[in-house]
Amino acid sequence: MDDDGRGFGPRPEDGAAPLGPGPADPLPYEGVWRFTAPAVEASVPQARHAVRDLLLRQGVPVSDDLAQGLLLIVSELVTNAVKHAAVLSPTIVVELAVGAEWLRVSVEDNHPYRPTALEADHGRTGGRGLLLVREVTREAGGVCEVEYTASGGKVIWAALPLKPARFA
């Protein structure tokens, strides 16, 4: 991966370089952070808190709405990995990449099953985590995908445009 430290995320369709500081001038909050966690229920709030604390510690200029959406996505993706992949993947990897214009969160596990977003069925509880992730991502103007890894597992990621909070 050669992204000049600008994190992952969609690029302009016309191939134009993004506006702002160049690769030699990364913003203070840019970077990529990865951590592993056991595929157990306790990892869900731990992952959410780790991402929240990272945003605060790095000074990422994120609006409250975007931060809440991102934390909901983290919760849903980690919950899905814990519920559906733990048998074949005792650990999961959570990654947060922050670029000048995008945030990208991903959860990777070693289970080969590729989940699909279920339609809303008001008669059952649960089962709509990926649908929720896709909807939150879409409302924020982002992109969400599921990809296979070289090891046969999968990574589910959501990239959200970084819209700095407006200061009064």
How many strands in all? 5
Characterize the main sheet: 5 strands, antiparallel
Terminal-residue CA separation: 38 Å
Taking Cα atoms only, what radius of gyration do you get, to the nearest Å? 16 Å
Instruction: Provide the structure class.
Output: alpha+beta
Mass-distribution shape:
globular
The chain-level mean pLDDT equals: 82
Spatial strand sequence of the major β-sheet: 1-2-3-5-4
Layout: helices, strands, pairs:
Elements: E1 31-38, H1 43-58, H2 64-85, E2 91-98, E3 102-109, H3 129-139, E4 143-148, E5 154-161
Antiparallel strand pairs: 1-2, 2-3, 3-5, 4-5
Structural overview:
- The chain is of the alpha+beta class.
- The chain is built from three helices and five strands; from the N terminus they run E-H-H-E-E-H-E-E.
- It has a five-stranded antiparallel β-sheet with strand order 1-2-3-5-4.
- A hairpin with a 5-residue loop joins strand 4 (143-148) and strand 5.
- The longest helix has 22 residues, at 64-85.
- It is globular, with a radius of gyration of 16 Å.
In short:
This protein has helices at 43-58, 64-85, 129-139, and strands at 31-38, 91-98, 102-109, 143-148, 154-161. With 168 residues, the protein is α+β, with helices and mostly antiparallel strands.
Provide tags for this entry.
globular, alpha+beta, disordered N terminus, 29% helix, 168 residues
